[in-house]
Write a structure and sequence with these properties.
It is built from three helices and no strands. It is mainly alpha-helical and about 80 residues long. The longest helix has 23 residues. The chain is flat, with a radius of gyration of 15 Å.
Amino acid sequence: MLLIQSLIPKTDTEAWLFFTAVSTLAENLILLSSAANLMVTEVTGKAGDTLTFKQHLQFGLPLTFLTLDLIRTEALP
């Protein structure tokens, strides 16, 4: 977010909404795309367990598709 904020005008609400939606989907889909995901992985490791990319994807992929479906459903009249 910090890197892109200089590229999008503060008054361009549509661009900001699009950017935040895309970044949220990426965070749900990819383990390394979110600081929160990395923190959970680190805490899990310290607790003696692991969270692999595949395990994250098993949850993140369906969640991403569900979110996209909800967006599509809401966007249609």
